[in-house]
Every structure is written in C-alpha cells, then in structure tokens.
Specification:
There is one protein chain. This protein has 314 residues and is α+β, with helices and mostly antiparallel strands. It folds into two domains: 236 residues, 3-Layer(aba) Sandwich (Aminopeptidase), CATH 3.40.630.10; 71 residues, OB fold (Dihydrolipoamide Acetyltransferase, E2P). The protein is globular, with a radius of gyration of 20 Å. 44% of the residues are buried. Bound molecules: zinc ion (ZN). The site of zinc ion has 3 residues, from loops.
Length: 314
C-alpha cells in the first residue's frame, strides 16, 4: 500500500499526523513553520491535497481547508485514501494581508522553485519536492482579487481530461477553461502528471460564507466520487464555460452594476452604468456576448480600463 512520507515523517494507513515543516525565520528570528495535516484511512485509496492561502490575502480558501480538517477530526469518516491538508501555504502574505511575499513575489508564479532562490521560490521548491510527488489529485483554494468577487468556479485546462472529470465531480456553479500558467503550482503538478483543480470563490480579504460553504460541498462531492467519503451534498447545475473575458471600463467614474454573480446576460444587454460624480455624464456598459457573470468588481470608483465584469461563454 502507498505510504505518504513528508520531510522524513512516514504516515501509515489509519494514522493522523500533524507535521510542522520548518520554512525560514522572520527578521525577528521567529521560526516560521508550515503546518501540514495528514489524515489517512486504513484502506488503500487516492492521496488528495487540499490547500489554501497560496495567496496570503485569500482568506476564504484558508477557512475552507480549515473547516474540512475540522469535519474530519469531528466525525466525517475517511473510507479510503489519504488527505494532505495545508490550510495556509503563504504565511508571510497572511501576516501582511498580502497576496505575495515581502519582496513582492507571487508564490503561484515561482514554481517549481529553487532551494537557494527567493523566499517564494524556496517554498515552491518545498511543495514541489515534498508534496506534489505524494499526491494523485489536489484542490487549491483561491479567491478573486481585492474588491473583485468570483462566483464559485473550478478552473481547469480543458485539455486535461482527468482534471475536467474531477471538476465535474466537484460540481459547483461553473467550470471555466483556463490554460496552465507558466511557473504556477497547477502547471508544475500537471508536469508531474498530477491533477490540481483551482477553485475560485469570493474576493480577497473578505470572508464569504457562501463561497466557503460551496468549496466544502464541492470537495465532499469530489471525495464521494472517489469513494473516500460516504455522503455529499447535491451538486449545482454546473455550466461549462470554454472561454471567459473581462469587460473593461470605457470611462472613469462611479460604477453601478445591475447584474449579479451567476446571472445570464444576452448580447447587447446593459449590465451596468458608469457616471461622473455630478450627474452630467452616464455611460452604459453593454455585453458584447451571451454569457454568464462569473466575476464582478465591487469597487464603486473605477478608472478607464478597469476590469468590471468577467463573462464566461458556453
Ligand atoms: Zn489566488
């Protein structure tokens, strides 16, 4: 039977093990560990990674992974296989309410990493060496940006047929075709023939209870599909979107949206208005296509060229 081994610690079937992987020291010389929680069934099965906080300000993902861990430790039975749960990958970003590391580097653009590289690169290296080889599949929990909210969606490259099957099993509102990005966690995992789903829900620095609940529900549907747990909530009417684009502001001003996340819009439909602060000028924002609102800017004050509404096409 396949045995998980992380940082020299062997996890036997049926064991629950918490590992604190030493990362680096803060400038204060406070030691920073990466806490990793492994929950293994007595029965052989897949090894699944559940990770959050690769971007340190995307707190919904941290809470989603934390809640799944809590459920496992309070009665949710693992029927087979192993879960590796890392609720908070980017501790540095979390401490500073930032997506990135203190030097501005994005962990999700630092893979596969380097033992002697930047801090982000070193952590990417640890994940590439210690975690990716252990897993079969994974779900990496993300959110939209600052003031940019995403309707729950799985991002997967449609060329990855296994990834697409897993995304369907996850069964949330949308599956969005998203090419692998160079130096990302997902691409590095895929190069090792592992399938990492990226979940997006809500926005950074704001807890969104629906996005968190839906992340947990989707994870349960996926684990149930893989025979790892015995019960899961019903899936949504998942819509598969082969292409998605942001509608950008043609003028600066105050942004009033008349659409909500998840809405279906038709070509030519007025989705929003941008006005000056004095009631002299109003510019409509029209949809250039039929599609679904999968992301929305919640910032009322916008500049020309800002991303306003993310539309996905079937
Ligand atoms: Zn992210």
């Amino acid at each position: 039977m396949k045995e998980v081994q992380i940082n020299g610690v062997r996890v036997r079937p049926g064991q629950s093990v918490n590992i604190e992987l030493p990362i680096a020291k803060l400038p204060t010389h406070t030691l920073i560990d990466l806490p990793i929680f492994i929950r293994s069934s007595k029965n052989e099965g897949p090894v699944i990674l559940i990770s959050g906080g690769v971007h340190g300000d995307e707190i919904n993902g941290v809470v989603t992974a934390k809640k799944i861990l809590e459920e496992l430790d309070h009665g949710l039975e693992l029927l087979r296989g192993t879960l590796i749960i890392i609720p908070l990958v980017n501790i540095y970003g979390f401490l500073s309410n930032s997506r990135t590391f203190p030097d501005g580097r994005d962990l999700n653009r630092s893979f596969p990493g380097n033992k002697k590289g930047s801090l982000a690169s070193r952590i990417a290296f640890i994940l590439s060496q210690e975690i990716i080889p252990q897993i079969d599949f994974g779900i990496d929990f993300h959110t939209g940006g600052r003031m940019l909210s995403n309707q729950p969606q799985i991002r997967v490259d449609f060329k990855d047929k296994m990834g697409l099957e897993l995304a369907n099993a996850f069964g949330t509102h949308f599956i969005v075709n998203s090419k692998h990005i160079e130096k990302s966690f997902r691409k590095t995992a895929f190069n090792a023939r592992k399938h990492l789903l990226v979940y997006e829900g809500g926005e950074s620095m704001r807890l969104d209870s629906y996005a968190i609940e839906e992340g947990i529900s989707g994870t349960k549907r996926l684990l149930n599909h893989l025979g790892m747990i015995g019960i899961a909530p019903d899936s949504k009417n998942t819509v598969t979107l082969s292409q998605s684009d942001w509608v950008r502001a043609k003028a600066s001003g105050i942004f009033y949206s008349s659409v909500k996340l998840g809405d279906y819009v038709r070509k030519g439909e007025i989705m929003a208005r941008i006005s000056d602060p004095y009631g002299q000028v109003v510019v409509p924002v029209k949809s250039g296509t039929n599609g679904y609102v999968i992301g929305l800017n919640n910032n009322p004050v916008i500049n020309v060229g800002d991303a306003l509404i993310h539309l996905g096409k079937e």
